[in-house]
Amino acid sequence: MTQRTATDQAQGGDAIVIGAGLIGLSIAFELARRGVDVRVIESGEAGHGASWAAAGMLAPLTEQLVEPTFRKLCEDALAMYPEFVAHVREAGGVDPQLHLNGIATIAFDDAQMERLLLRSHVLQERGHAYTLLDPMQTLAMEPVLDKHVRGALLVHGEGQVNNRRLGPALLAACERSGVTISTAAHDVALVVNGRRAIGVRTETGLVTAKIVINAMGAWASQLPGVPSDCVPPVRPICGQMLALTLPHQLVQHTMWVPGAYLVPKDDGQLLIGATSEDVGFQTRVTAQGVHALLHGALAAAPKLGEFTISETWAGLRPATPDELPLIGRTALDGYLLAVGHYRNGILLAPITAQMIADLVTKAEGAAPLEWK
Ligand SMILES: Cc1cc2nc3c(=O)[nH]c(=O)nc-3n(C[C@H](O)[C@H](O)[C@H](O)COP(=O)(O)OP(=O)(O)OC[C@H]3O[C@@H](n4cnc5c(N)ncnc54)[C@H](O)[C@@H]3O)c2cc1C
């Protein structure tokens, strides 16, 4: 294992990625695949930020994204996932458990069913595959649901990945591809000469590079040394979640029910998420948060009340004011952003990596990002 603590000496390289979440690790892996000499600097543990806290859903259609360019980006990201996971698995030897067996939104009354019908028309217009299920079909698909269920919309091709396995899988893939990863780094700061980024300083000294990529998630605006006009407007949005331990395959599909979503993992854990709270960098699990999630889950599937709560946790989504990511150059030469992925960073990891790697490896210039 080539993972290092923060004792590295200053040395040159092509690119430095700051932040080893799924965004930073995906970028590093893609850059290494293209022959770029890349180093990742992480202040904590790799893969343990929002990327660890997430549910791992790959849901560009179920999320009902409004902004058309962003919607297309998310749909393209989903299309890339099988190949991305195959490359990561092949390079690192860890299976991130990708399941694209569809995501079902469940209705319990006529108004909810009416909304699913309207959504099915939109899906049809855009050429996406789906199935509308009546109550019997819905219960046949997921017998755990309350018998008064009214129906469901199953969007084909969506699904989930085990994000807590994708982190270690990417880490292994990066290490085997020659990426240097420094964790537990202190006092991380960008170093600038004139209007050009020249490297990153940590408590052990300066590491130089031609390109520095900020992939710091919810902490993206906190990097010292960045000129004020290049500080991205990213803030944390807390999400609380919990997990139940279920008998094997009791729940088969990722489901959106009123007030919660349910995501079954291969190890028998059913993830129930998630709150959305603008409370700064706080990651408390509160009685109110857990109550709200369980209220939604148990109203939809009362049987779930029998099972053990195995874990509760909270993480920080990286949000921009318009809730769209910032992926690209800045007005500072050599300083790139891959931040603000908000609710869809697991989904967007492969396409973000591709976009940043294109900027690093292809000569043509792109206009710097702009934001308000
Ligand atoms: C409860 C919850 C559920 C979610 N569910 C989904 C989902 O189902 N599907 C989906 O697509 N997305 C989901 N998301 C969103 C997704 O988790 C994020 O968009 C994504 O993980 C962001 O990845 P990242 O690598 O940018 O951030 P992170 O994973 O947070 O990584 C950022 C890294 O930067 C490091 N860092 C911070 N400061 C410094 C510094 N000074 N120096 C060096 N390193 C630093 C951090 O330690 C961290 O490791 C969810 C998020 C939450 C909280």
How would you sum up this structure, described in words?
With 372 residues, this protein is an alpha/beta fold. The chain folds into two domains: 15-94 and 163-233 and 322-361, FAD/NAD(P)-binding domain, CATH 3.50.50.60; 103-159 and 235-319, D-Amino Acid Oxidase, subunit A, domain 2 (D-Amino Acid Oxidase, Chain A, domain 2, 2-Layer Sandwich), CATH 3.30.9.10. 29% of the residues lie in helices and 26% in strands. An eight-stranded mixed sheet has the order 5-6-4-14-15-16-13-17. A six-stranded mixed sheet has the order 8-2-1-12-19-18, covered by helices on one side. Helix 1 (22-33) runs parallel beside helix 6. The longest helix is centred in the first third of the chain and has 25 residues, at 68-92. Mean pLDDT is 95; it is low at 1-9. Bound molecules: flavin-adenine dinucleotide (FAD).
Poorly predicted runs: 1-9
Can you list the ligands bound to this structure? Answer: flavin-adenine dinucleotide
Quantity of strands, as a count: 19
The general outline is elongated
Average pLDDT number: 95
Structural class: alpha/beta
The number of helical elements comes to 8
Please provide a brief summary of the model.
The protein is α/β, with parallel strands linked by helices and 372 residues long. The protein is built from 8 helices and 19 strands. Strands 5-6-4-14-15-16-13-17 form an 8-stranded mixed β-sheet. Strands 8-2-1-12-19-18 form a 6-stranded mixed β-sheet, covered by helices on one side. Strands 9-10-11 form a 3-stranded antiparallel β-sheet, with no helix packed on it.
